[in-house]
Structure formats: C-alpha cells, structure tokens
Design goal:
heterodimer, A: about 500 residues, alpha/beta, two-stranded antiparallel sheet, 16 helices, B: about 475 residues, 9-stranded mixed beta sheet, two-stranded antiparallel ribbon, 11 strands, globular, EC 2.3.1.- (chain A), 3-ktacl-CoA_syn (chain A), acyltransferase (chain A), transferase (chain A), Thiolase-like (chain A)
Chain lengths: ~500, ~475
C-alpha cells in the first residue's frame, strides 16, 4: 500500500506540471503583452488630462490633415481585407443511404460466395475468415448487379448505380441547403474505378441542367483519398473565383469492379468495399459565413509514389486467368504508417499548439546532440483536435492509427461504427463518419476535426476543418434510424 | 515633435503604396507560360496502313457486306493517310480480347518516351515539378496513371496531382484550366500536364454502325507540356495564356446523348456517335465563340460587327424583303493561327466555314489529321507543332485553340507566342518537308472499291483470301 501512494501522487503532480507548462507556452504572447499594456496605460493616466491636451494641441493638426489620414487608413484596411485569402466554407453535405433491399448480411455474402466460387473452397474459406475479422456489420449494402449469381456487371448497371448514388446524394443536399442548380459554379466528381465517356460530371450536368459555363472536373483513379484531393482542388478554384459555389461529389462505383476470380489477395476488396456516396457544397460567399457548418483550415497532401513498395501495395492487375482485380499487398499497414508519419510532419507545425511543438523540438535537439537513445516524442494530437475522422479502410487501418496517434477508443468510435454500418465506402467514408459525430450531438462551435484518408499510389491526405456553429442533432441523414443503437461493441472475431 | 506629424502622414501613405505594389506584383506572378511541349511519335511498327486496316476489318467475323460498305465510305472520307498509329494489341492481332496489361503498357510507352524527351529538352528535373495533371479519357487504373509517372520519375512527396478521366477530346484546355487556377494562388510553380488517349480497352468488337466508327477515327498519340508561372523563366517560355473559355452543353439531352459510351444490343461496349453530333457541336461552338470573341478580338472589329448587325436589323424592320447576308466577324483581326481539333474531315470543314478560314489557315489541322489521325485530346498540340515546324510562329502572334468533346463540351483558349519559334525538337521535323503532299486521298478506294459493286446475296470472302 505505501508503495502505491507515492506513485499516484507523483503522477498527479506530473499531470499538473504538464498542464501548467502547456498553458504557459500556449498563451505566452498574452503573458508578455499584458504587463506592457498595463505599464503604458498607467503612465498615460499618471500624465493627467491637462498634459495630454497640451501634447495634442502642440501637434498642430487641422481638419484636412485628419480627414486625409483617416481616408488613407480606411483605404489601407480595405486593401488588406480584400487581399486576404478567401475562406472556404462547407455549407452542408449529404450522404447516400442505400435502401434496405441492397443489404448484404454475412449469411447472404457467404452463400453467394460459395455458389460463385464453387470450385475453390479454399478461397471461400479465406473470404469467411476475412469477413469474421473485418469489423463490418450485417447492414452494409452492395449494388443490385452484384446480388445476381453470378454477378452481372454491365456498363448499364454501373451507370444505373452511379445515377442512383449520385443523384440521391445531390437531391438530398439541394433540399438541405435550398440552393438552386443555376447557382453552382464549380462541379468536381471523383470516382476511382468507373470512368465512362462522357464523364460522371457530364452526367450530373445533364441531369440537373447546370449552366453552360460551369467548370466541371472529373477525377478518377485516385483511390480512397480522392475526396480530400477534390477538396484541395475546390479550395484552389474558390481562391481564384470569388463569390462561387462548388459542388463536390465523392463516390465509388462497385459494380464494374467486383472480382470474379479466385486469387486470394484480390478477393479482399470484395469483402470490404460497399456502396456509398456523398455530396458536399462548398462556398466562399460571405453570406454563408453564418449558416455554414465548417470552415476549411488546411489540406495537406503526401504522395509516396516514388518508393517502389509504396507504389505497388494497392495495384490493379489481371490474375493468372485474366480476371481483373485489385491486389492488396501484405505490408500495407507498414506503408500506411510511414505515409502517415510524412503527413504528420507537415501538418504538425500547422495545427499543434506551441507547447507541443516546443516539446517536440527539444526532444529532437536532444536526440541529435545529447543522446540518440531518447525516445522520439510523439506530439499529442488530442491537443490540436477534438474529433478525428479516420478513413474506414478496414479494421487494421483504424487499429494502426489509433496506436500511432495514441487515440482513445472514443476518438476512433466514429470510424469503427461507420465501418460496421456502411463498410468501406472509399472516398465518401469520411463524410459518413462526420455525420455520425453530428448525429451523436458531439459537434460544438469551435471544435476542430481532422480527416485522414489513405489511397492507392500511395497517398496520405488530411484536411482540417473548424466547426462554425454548434450543430443540432440532425433529423435526417444516413444515421437517423440507427444512431440510437450505436456505439456497438465489435468483437475481434465474429464466429460465422 | 515635428517628426510625429510627418510620421503620421508618411506611414499610411507607405502602407498604401506597399499594398498596391503587392497587388500588382501578385498579378505579375499569375501568368501561365508554356515552357515547352513534346508530342508523341509511336514506333514505326505501329503504323496502320491500308492493307492492315483491311485485315483488321476482316478479322471481325461479325461484320458483313453492309458494314464493309459503310466502313469503306467512312475511311475514304476520313482524311487519314497511311502513317497513322494504332495500339500495339491491334497490331498483334489481339483486339478481340485486350488485357489490362496492354492498356497500361500502351501508356507506359508513351510516358517513358515523351516525358523523358521533355525533361531533357528543358533541363528541368522531375523533383522540381510541383503540380501534375494527367488526362487520359478511357482508362482508370489503380493506382492512377499519375501515380505511375510519380513512381517512375521519383517525384516529390508534396506534389499536387490530379487525374482527369472521361472528359473526351476537349480535355486539354480543362487540364490547363486546373493549372491556371493553381497559378493564381501560388507563386513559382512548375506544372507538368500529360494528355493522351488509351485505345486498347475501348476497341469495339461488335457490329453496330454508330460504334465501329470510333475504331476508324481514333489513333494513338499524346503530348506532355511543361507550364510555369515563374517570372525567372519568362525568357525561356514559348507561349503565354491570354484567356480560356469552357462551354458545357450537358444540360441538353441531345447534346449529352450524341457521344456516349454504352453497350450495344449484344452487350459489346463501344463508343456511340449519334447522328446529331454535328448539330450539337455547332451549337456548343457558337456559344463558346459568343463568350470568347469579346475577350480576344480588338475593339475595332467588335464595333464594326455591332454596327453592321444594327444596320441589318433596322433594314429588316423597314423593308419587307430580306436584308442580305448576315455580317460575319473577321476572326483574323485578333487571331493569327488556328489550332482546330482534328475530330474528322467534316469537323474541320465545318469550323473553317463558320470562321471563314482559308486553306492556308486549316492546312495544319488537315495535315495533322492525315499524318496522325484523331489523337483525341492531344490533337491540338500536334497541329501547333506543325505550325512551329513550318516556321509560321513569330513573336507576338496569337494562336487560337478550339476542341470539342463528349458531354457535349467546347473549350477554347488563346495563346500569345513569346518568341520566334524554330523546328528544334519537333515531332514533325523529320518529314515536314514532304508536307503538304500533292494529294491527301488515301488509297482505300482504289484498293477496296470493288466492295461497292458486290451484291449482299452473292458476296463471299473465303477464309484463305489474301489481301494484296
């Protein structure tokens, strides 16, 4: 008993020391400025009112000079405010909710798998083991073409899926925000694996009869991190075009990419990828400053393509029988960890409070100069962000990131629950996670959100948003009918 | 105390001048310059001559006499010569079952050849590239083709990369639009734009007439460009972007459906080109011209045109009879050279008629169509290369580029030539002296004209028939 007590008290003392240090360093400017201001004001007050009037009269300024100076000052202020980079606001976003008829429960999936791969029982077993450990739930959805035995991925079915996902999301967004289609100036659509001609962006222009001078872009092949790449492009475009709305649509069309062969490493995406899509409205209009939900603070992109292993870890290729599928290599986690480290190195200085940066700098200098055996200091990102949206790539990705960033289970709850309810919806998963946090009523004004996504290539992109207004628990959205059941405990292995 | 009022005046004035200078300086750094560009010339073993085209058509067992007659008519009037290039899998006889590997290798050949040459020409290192935009319409691979380039050239980690697909033949100005916007917000940026088309997986193997046409029209080609807004490189730049206008007619159903990739009745995926394609193209073209003309033509010409139109309108109101021909804008007052998308002979003829261009003006486009075919988004760069090879581009000249694409889009841009350009490192250099040839008719008619005489009931080609 006596041994336990000193440890406890010393750890509490340490905690308070750390808190005090953080407070001091974070607010150092205030600490320096306040005494100076107090000193000056005391001096001025000591002078007395008559002295001040005497100084003022001796300046000998008349009306004209006052007017000119004030005019100049106003002009400078206007120029300064006009030349500041425009803020990009997220007015609102909408996620696609698949109908319940597209649901694929474990039993359905395994039965279809057994019938489709009847000659390859080992592959069926492999799929079952993946599904048990995947972290997916029983309500994830696949498009209708995949429900056939064998699946019928025609181009028409793919277009049908694209139309359903994208148009539902955009309709829902229009209803939420109340904007008219003719107001949209920029359109960006990103879908990795399906790129028909004319593009999906042309399909959106056709359906909603958008203006003929719309700036439309169709990005593809950029993997699960394409949503944040579209955000980066939208931000650059909104800087160059004042007073505009940008509509960004992120989705992944599953129909044409269902792997029909039996090579094991390529069956993995079949088990994980599910239907989903999101439509996001961005604006740089000053009138949206009050009704926007979030403000975009930073977007940081890291591309590890120059490294051979990183480039080959997510690769589309044909198997020995000529069937096309995506091959996921075994060292995906290691590469993801390294890409994350690169990304953190860039984003750290931008978002971490001064206290963390100072600690990191001290340990870095210490390691270089004094003793290389010092443990590298991992900055505490929980100081910089209130919420984390980690791309729901798979259970292993979320576990790895939780360990690397030292996050609690509440921080990664949004990612785990999205993986459970919707599966890996690729680039739109970040928006389902954000929607979860809002549905739980946890989003308050001033909260900072960090969205991290990984993608083939190998890319790690992250975006930092700041919440603009406290968000009331939404009555619509993809989580509306099931949020009360969450969070759910997801066991390590679900016995099938 | 005398110093204090002086300070009160000068300080705001200094701030004002500083802000004005900052604004002006920013504008100077927003210009988009082309440092250099390189067009792709595939290897000689990929040429599709007349005899080989006949072989390819014969190999498709689905086609019958009617389809042969239709194809003959199309190819004869296509404006192609004997030297256009096709994808390797067609030349190896595997067009019925192309593989993903073929498509990726096709792109790899292009990247390694062209981008290497471009870096060597300009002396820029791959690690200096800040922005990469790749547009290849019909192939979306994982990882993207832009990642393939980054991987091969070991580019930096913080590179901004965008991979556009599905945007059709008018995608070049769209890629340049992205770069132009990035240039407006960041300084000292160097961008690499790569544009091409992947034909391997889009080869149509059915017999729908509207879809076989794409097999006859599209050919292999590509272009890589280096753009920058660095003021230090202004002296080395070839072109400066003056303005860029995009028009999207996707809102109209007929425009959207006239050029669409879909399955035919038998389930073969192909590129459907509808009958109202020329009409949709003309509408988009007119809209685009309406928007870009005020930006590129001198005021004198605009006033002249307005005056003539007003006179014509008043004449129409006063007299009951017709008021004579519509006044035409003379585009040559603001534009010296025209780079037209080589969509086909009909497209070039239609644009030439609309803009009142002479044979000399459309010679580059016609010759590009003859020598390289319709290389989709990169065709306008081949046309530009022809003009450069013929020593037509002098400092201060204005070059107008216009391209059409699926959707239906019409994009155009105006470039100013920064210095007198010569033939160095041009894709046309080796054979420019043989252009323009005396005749551009291809020998298809004399070789296969006999098909027109055949009767469907008696037509039969034996399996061992060898095309002479």
């Amino acid at each position: 008993m006596p041994q336990a007590l000193p440890n406890f008290s010393s750890s509490v003392k340490l905690k308070y020391v750390k808190l005090g240090y953080q407070y001091l360093v974070d607010h150092i400017l205030t600490f320096l400025l306040i005494p100076t201001m107090v000193g000056i004001s005391v001096q001025i007050i000591l002078l007395g009112p008559e002295e001040m009037l005497k100084i003022w009269r001796s300046l000998d300024i008349d009306l004209v000079q006052i007017l000119c100076s004030s005019f100049l000052i106003i002009l400078i202020c206007t120029l300064y405010f006009m030349s500041k980079p425009r803020s990009v606001y997220l007015v609102d976003y909408a996620c696609y909710k698949p109908p319940i008829t597209y649901r694929v429960s474990f039993s359905t999936f395994m039965e279809h798998s057994r019938l489709n791969l009847k000659d390859n029982l080992k592959s069926v077993d492999f799929q079952m083991r993946i599904l048990e450990r995947s972290g997916l739930g029983e309500e994830t959805c696949l498009p209708p073409a995949i429900h056939y035995i064998p699946p019928t991925p025609t181009m028409e079915a793919a277009r049908g899926e694209a139309e359903e996902v994208i148009f539902s999301a955009i309709d829902s967004l229009m209803q939420k925000t109340g904007i008219k289609v003719k107001d949209i100036d920029i359109l960006i659509v990103n879908c990795s694996l399906f790129s028909p001609t004319p593009s999906l962006s042309a399909m959106v222009v056709n359906k909603y009869k958008l203006r003929s001078n719309i700036k439309s872009y169709n990005l593809s092949g950029m993997g699960c991190s394409a949503g944040l790449i579209s955000m980066d492009l939208a931000r650059d475009l909104l800087q160059a075009h004042p007073n505009s709305y940008a509509l960004v649509v992120s989705t992944e069309i599953i129909t044409p990419n269902y792997y029909k062969g039996s090579e094991r490493a390529m069956l993995l995406p079949n088990c994980l990828f599910r239907m989903g899509g999101a439509a996001i409205l961005l604006s740089n209009k000053s009138r949206d400053k009050h009704r926007a939900k979030y403000r975009l603070v930073h977007v940081v992109r890291t591309h590890k393509g120059s490294d051979d292993k990183a480039y080959k870890c997510v690769y589309e290729q044909e198997d020995s029988q000529g069937k096309v599928g995506i091959n996921l290599s075994k060292d995906l986690m290691v590469i993801a960890g390294e890409a994350l480290k690169s990304n953190i190195t860039t984003i750290g200085p931008l978002v971490l409070p001064a206290s963390e940066q100072l600690l990191f700098l001290i340990t870095l200098i210490g390691r270089k100069i004094f003793n290389p055996k010092w443990k590298p200091y991992i900055p505490d990102f929980k100081q910089a962000f209130e919420h984390f949206c980690i791309h729901a790539g798979g259970r292993a990705v979320i576990d790895e990131l939780q360990k690397n960033l030292q996050l609690s289970s509440e921080h990664v709850e949004a990612s785990r629950m999205t993986l459970h309810r919707f599966g890996n919806t690729s680039s739109s998963s970040l928006w389902y996670e954000l929607s979860y946090i809002e549905a739980k009523g946890r989003m308050k004004k001033g909260d900072r959100v960090w969205q991290i996504a990984f993608g083939s290539g190998f890319k790690c992109n992250s975006a930092v948003w700041k919440c603009n207004r406290t968000i009331k628990t939404p009555t619509d959205g993809p989580w509306q009918d099931c949020i009360d059941r969450y969070p759910v405990h997801i066991p390590e292995i679900v016995k099938l | 105390m005398d110093l204090f009022p002086r300070f009160l005046y000068w300080f705001p004035l200094l701030c004002l001048f500083y802000n004005l200078w900052k604004k002006f300086d920013r504008r100077r750094h927003q210009n988009c310059y082309i440092l250099d560009y390189e067009c792709y010339k595939p290897s000689e073993d990929r040429k599709l001559n007349t005899r080989f085209c006949g072989e390819v058509i014969r190999r498709n067992k689905q086609l019958g006499l009617n389809e042969y007659k239709f194809l003959l008519k199309s190819i004869v009037s296509s404006g192609f010569g004997e030297d256009t290039y096709g994808p390797r899998m067609v030349l190896e006889g595997r067009e019925m079952s192309p593989r993903l590997e073929d498509a990726v290798n096709e792109m790899n050949d292009f990247f390694l050849d062209t981008i290497d040459k471009l870096f060597k020409k300009t002396g820029i290192l791959p690690s200096e590239i800040d922005v990469l935009v790749v547009n290849i319409s019909m192939l979306a691979a994982v990882p993207s083709l832009s990642s393939l380039i980054i991987h091969h050239y070991k580019m930096r980690e913080d590179i901004k990369v965008y991979n556009l697909t599905g945007m059709g033949c008018s995608a070049s100005p769209i890629a340049i639009n992205i770069v132009q916007n990035i240039f407006k917000t960041q300084r000292n940026v160097q961008a690499l734009v790569v544009t091409s088309e992947s034909l391997s997986l889009g080869w149509y193997t059915g017999k729908d007439k509207s879809m076989i046409l794409s097999n006859c029209l599209f050919r292999s080609g590509g272009c890589a460009l280096l753009l920058t807004n660095k003021l230090a490189l202004k002296e080395k730049a070839m072109f400066k972007l003056k303005c860029l206008v995009r028009t999207h007619h996707g809102a109209k159903d007929e425009s959207y459906d006239c050029c669409i990739q879909k399955e035919d009745d038998q389930g073969y995926v192909g590129f459907h080109l509808g009958k109202n394609l020329p009409k949709a193209a003309t509408r988009a073209f007119v809209d685009n011209l309406k928007e870009i003309s005020p930006k590129i033509l001198p005021i004198r010409e605009l006033l002249h045109f307005t005056l003539l139109t007003l006179i014509r309108e008043t004449k129409k109101k006063c007299t009951k009879t017709g008021a004579g021909a519509r006044p035409a804008i003379n585009f040559k007052t603001g534009i010296d050279h025209f780079c037209l998308h080589t969509g086909g002979k009909a497209v070039i003829d239609a644009v030439a008629q609309n803009l009142n261009l002479s044979e000399h003006d459309i010679e580059p486009a016609r010759m590009t169509l003859h020598r390289f075919g319709n290389t989709s988004a990169s065709s306008i760069w081949y046309v530009l290369a022809y003009m450069q090879a013929k020593n037509r581009l002098k400092k201060g000249n204005k070059v107008f580029m216009i391209s059409f694409g699926a959707g239906f889009k019409c994009n155009s841009c105006l470039w100013e030539v920064m210095k007198d350009l010569d033939q160095d490192g041009n894709v046309w250099k080796e054979f420019i002296n043989s252009y323009p040839p005396k005749t551009i008719a291809n020998p298809f008619l004399e070789k296969y004209g006999w098909i027109n005489e055949e009767d469907p009931d008696t037509f039969h080609v034996s399996d061992d028939y060898v095309i002479p």
